[in-house]
Amino acid sequence: MSLFQFVWRNILYKKVLSVLSIVSVSVGVALVIFITLAHDSMEEGAAKGYGPYELVIGAEGSSTQLALNTFYHIGAPTGNISYEVYEQVKESDLAEVVYPLTKGDHYQGHQIVGVPVEYLASRYPHVSLAEGSLYQQTGEVVIGSQIAKDLELRVGDKFYGSHGQVSAHSDDHHQELLYRVVGILPPLHTPDDKAIFTTVDHAWVVHHQEEESDREKEVTALVVIPKGLMELQTLKNFANEMDGVQGVYSSKAMADVLNIVDYGTKAIQVITSICIFIAAISLMLSLIVTTTDKKKDIGLLRLIGKPKWYIWGSVVLEGQILTIIGCLFGMLLGHLTSFLLNDLFISYIGIPLQTGSIRSFDGYILLGAMIIGFLASIWPALRSYQVHPLTLFR
Known about the structure:
The protein has twelve helices and 13 strands.
C-alpha cells in the first residue's frame, strides 16, 4: 500500500473529524477571499469613481458627503449652490472642463442626475451605449446598466421621478415631468451603473425654476478638470472664498473614505485571524486523535518494517490533504459569496466586487494555508514518530 493510499483510507475512516477539519479551513479561507476581494474592489472603485475630475465644488458641509453624493450617488447632497458659480468657474479660464450637476430626485431609489450630455463622453471616452441614443431634450434619460437590470427598464419606457433620495418606494411623484428612457449604458463597473442621467434643467422644471434668471437658478455640484496643478489649487481657493461654497479635492475625499473602510477591514481581519487559528487547532486535534486511536496500527507498521519517516510523513501528508481540500472549498465559497453579494454591493455603494477571476493572491492563500497545515501537523507527527513497536502488544 502506498503512503497516499494509507493516508486517504485513514481520512475516510474518521469522516466526522476529517469533515470538521475541512470545514474549519474552508471558513477561514472563504473569509480571507471575501475580505480581500471587497477591500480591493473598494480601492479600485474609489480610484475609478471620480474619473478625471480632480475637483468637485458644492455647498458647504461634509467634504466626504459631497464627493460620495456627486460621484458615487450615495446619500443626500450637502445642498445647492448658485448657477452663477458655474458661470464664474467656466469664465475663469482655469478649468479645462467643468460640468454642473443637478440632483434631488430619484426613481425607485436610484438618483436622477442632471448633467450636460458631454459629461458621459468626457467620463467614458471609449464607451458606446448598449442601446438607444443619448438624451437631447428635457425629460429624456440614459440609464445605467444596473438600473436596466434591476427595474427591467427598456428604451421607450416612461416614468415619473419622486422627490428626495431616501425612499425607494415614494409615492410623492413629480407630475410636472414625465421621463422617457432613450438610451442604456453598458456595464461600466462604476457607481454610474446605478444612476439615471438627464439634462441639467430637469431639476429646474420639477422645482419650478425654469423661468428664473441664472443668478437664481441652483445646481448641486460642479465637477472640474483643471488645466494644471496650479489651476487646481487656485480653483479650490476660489470656491472656498465664496459664501456657502466649498472646493474639494476628489482624491483626498475618497482617501478619507478608504481610511474609514480600512478600520473596518482591520477589525474583520482580526476575526478572520481567529478563525484561521481555530482551523489550525481543529486540524491539529484531528491529527492527534488519529495518532492516539491508531497507536497499535502504527506499531504494526513499525514491526513490518516501515521506517519512522513513513509514519511521520503519513501524518504530515494527512494534514496537507485536509488543508488543501479545505482551502479549495474555501476559495470556491469565498468567490461564490462574492458573486452572490455583488448586486448588493452595487445597490448600496455602487461598486462591483471583482468576481469570476482567479488572482495571483489566491495562490498565496493556498501556499499560506499549506504552511499553516504543515505547522499544525508537526506535533501530531512527532507523537506518531515516537510510537514504539511494542505498543502493539500492550
